[in-house]
Amino acid sequence: LSDTSLLTLYTNDSMAGVSCVLSEDQFLCSICLEVFTDPVTTPCGHSFCNICINKHWDNSLKSCLVCQTSYCPNHLTPHNTVPRLKKHQLIAPVENLEERICPEHERLLELFCRDHSQLICVQCSYSDHKSHNTVPLKEQCEEEQSELQQKIQERKEKIQELQRSVELSQENADREMKEGVEFFNDLMKLVQQSLDQFKQSIEQKHQEIKEKAEELMTEVESEISALEQRRAQMEEIWKSDDHFHFVQTFTSVKPAPEMNDWTEVSVRAPSYEGRVAIAVSELLITKLNPKIKELFDDELKQAKKHAVDVILDPDTAHPNLDVSQNYKQVQYMVRQTFLSDTPERFSKTLCVLGKQKFSSGKFYYEVQVKGKTIWYLGVAKESANRNMGSKYKTPQNGFWRMFAGNNHPYLCSALVKVGVFVDYEEGLMCYFNAETSALLCFFSDCCFTGNIIPLLCPGNDDKGNNTAPLILTPVNV
């Protein structure tokens, strides 16, 4: 028996005291039909063996919430037959039934007040909890089960969503990997072809030198052979000590044959220096650059699909900046305009923000930088502190920008128009030369949060060299 408080144990003394008035049948357990062993009695008055009642209690005995007591099967019969009692609510046997009774009205706690998350009786619903959102306990149980099931279902769906994200990530990774491998394989093929051509040209040049040298060596060896033969003849006559015959023979009869003058003849061994640079230059100009440009052209084409019409917000402009009436141009002016100092306005750097705000997705805009020597472009978090110096405008402080200045002469002299592309979810920023499609700079793993806004800085006048404005231009898709 799990709830021993529901049973009253008989002591051996008490059994002895009533044995004289009880019949033998009354000493038998109605479950095992044997004499009681460790007898106990239920609140309804029946007695059983402790072991027997423990075995049957959970399945056969019930507690009535209306009568506020527990019954054995015999005493439970009226609740199953009498119409009035059949309406009583029976539950599995429990202890402390008094806890289910309203202490104030002594009625069954059969309602639940959702406003106060409190168990109440019917009388409570007409007094302290009048006009409150009250429901029967069964309805509350069903709703909590339904809410629990819904939470389980939501989490199962979340797992499916996460699994799908992983699958989608894998699909995208596989696709990009395939395209990347194909592209780099093509580049490696081009490089290998150029390497083969480079090696072939070196070997060919060396072969030419070798063949020329061998041709000359053959001629020299031929002359050596002729001279060797003449020397043998001279040695033969020389042995006779007849100087007259020697001179007569080799000066008059057999004068020395004509020989080549080899003094100025030579084969120059090339150093081959510069041929690597030439080969690489040819590779870049004729093969790699067109292939890479094709890639960048496609990337820029995709970026331009997300073009937005950015306009400037003059309320954010530094007092030394002049924003055009159409909100498309900004340039430095020496004379400062008197403007109210607000948290929205840049006060320490020559910056201005766009009016558009982005918190998701992709966007692209273009800016003309022709004729400028100092400038930077990018995005800034809407919540970033705008009263910080330039050196503090870092990603950690909510600023992402590409700077062009005197230490970037290429950017200053060669660029006409710059395209800025942002992928919010990917945390990616790319800067393109909008004229050539070349990728100038990029930032990955940008931790974008909240709203981000296009950022422009035309820089100071640089002693009159940087007076041209930054101009937001239409994007030709």
From TrEMBL:
PROSITE patterns: B302_SPRY, ZF_BBOX, ZF_RING_1, ZF_RING_2. Residues 290-477 form the B30.2/SPRY domain. Keywords: Coiled coil, Immunity, Innate immunity, Metal-binding, Zinc, Zinc-finger. Residues 97-137 form the B box-type domain. GO terms for biological process: innate immune response. It comes from the Eukaryota. GO terms for molecular function: zinc ion binding. GO terms for cellular component: cytoplasm. Residues 138-237 form a coiled coil. Residues 29-68 form the RING-type domain. This is Uncharacterized protein.
